[in-house]
Write a structure and sequence with these properties.
Blueprint lengths: L14 E7 L8 E6 L4 E5 L4 E2 L2 E6 L3 E5 L5 E5 L2 H9 L10 E3 L4 E4 L1 H7 L3 H8 L2 E5 L2 E6 L8 H4 L7 E5 L2 E2 L3 H12 L6 E8 L2 E9 L19 H10 L6 E2 L5 H16 L3 H16 L23
Parallel strand pairs: 9-15
Antiparallel strand pairs: 1-2, 2-3, 4-5, 5-6, 6-7, 7-16, 8-9, 10-11, 11-12, 12-13, 12-14, 14-15
Helix pairs in contact: 5-8
Length: 310
């Protein structure tokens, strides 16, 4: 019996996601979608048709559609959310960028790191950083709950850690952090960055050496690289097509339930006071653009993002 022909790839829909309205009842969630050709926007709910596609899920920052051939498309309210989700994808392995030597000493490849994290605001989101206040005074910044794929895990950080000093400079205010940021991006290969923090009231110092990381060589006859070979990469692409933009893999029941629970969790964990501190810190950091750095692209981020969830 002849094999069935592979599904025909469809060009992405000519639409933009302008905004979403989500609440406790998913049946009332709304996606505001613009037809690029007609320059007109209208509201859609789960189950509605858009050309040959059907809207199957509305999140607080994105929507998922299924095309007539089973192809899945994801649209984001803004590009920043798409980039952040890609950074947290399991496909983005940080082992080639961060190397642990022991519980307090790490190596970091600065050039590869800034290819993934291009600005300070993005790094704040990845570590879910908030300001810590004691008797109304800022005493540092707290690492929040992180995704298992966050670079913060690879850097030896834990949720609840309170970072007090970096290279001897206090982290209490936004101005302090901007100055730290400027010093770090001016660092050179071979420099060591020290981070003093409190972990469950116990002081700890972590050290990060900036070093270009090379593939690990086991012996002359066998080289072990953390980067998959072209053949393996090709196989992985076939088995796990990219889902951030378009993929031929429709959502199964378990994935749908996982996404539904994710939305519920996001809605339930809102903490207005902490979020307000976080937003204020970000606004201050972004508004004060650091001096131009000739060494890498980290300087660009301050002028690219005003808000982080459209």
């Amino acid at each position: 019996m002849p094999a069935s022909p592979p599904p025909r790839f469809l060009e992405p829909l000519s639409i933009n996601l302008k905004g979403v309205i989500v609440g406790s009842d998913e049946s009332f969630d709304i996606a505001i979608i613009e037809d690029v050709k007609e320059k007109k926007s209208r509201n859609y709910r789960v189950g509605d048709k858009i050309e040959d596609a059907q809207l199957i899920k509305i999140f607080r920052n994105k929507i998922i559609l299924i095309r007539s051939n089973g192809q899945q498309e994801t649209l984001y309210v803004n590009q920043y959310d798409a980039e952040l989700e890609q950074l947290l994808s399991p496909r983005n392995n940080w082992n080639t960028i961060i190397e642990k030597e022991n519980d307090t000493q790490y190596k970091v490849d600065p050039e590869l790191f800034v290819e993934r994290v291009s600005n300070l605001a993005q790094f704040i989101d990845l570590l879910n950083i908030t300001t810590v206040y004691q008797q109304g005074m800022s005493i540092g910044c707290r690492i929040g709950k992180m995704q298992p794929t966050s670079p913060g895990i690879m850097l030896g950080l834990m949720a609840g850690d309170i970072v007090q000093e970096i290279n001897g400079m206090r982290t209490a205010t936004a101005a302090d952090r901007i100055e730290i940021y400027k010093r770090i991006v001016e660092s050179n290969l071979g420099d060591i960055i020290s981070v003093k923090l409190l972990r469950k009231n116990t002081p700890i110092i972590l050290f990060y050496k900036l070093e270009r990381l090379e593939p690990v060589v086991k012996n002359r006859d066998q080289e072990v690289s953390t980067v998959p070979s072209p053949e393996i990469q090709s196989s992985q692409k076939e088995e796990q097509p990219e889902q951030v933009i378009t993929t031929a893999m429709p959502l199964n029941k378990a994935q749908k339930e996982e996404q539904r629970m994710f939305v519920r969790a996001e809605q339930n964990k809102m903490q207005p006071t902490i979020n307000e501190f976080k937003k204020n810190d970000k606004r201050i950091m972004i508004s004060q653009r650091p001096q131009r750095m000739s060494r890498n692209r980290l300087r660009d981020g301050f002028e690219q993002h005003d808000e982080f969830h459209g």
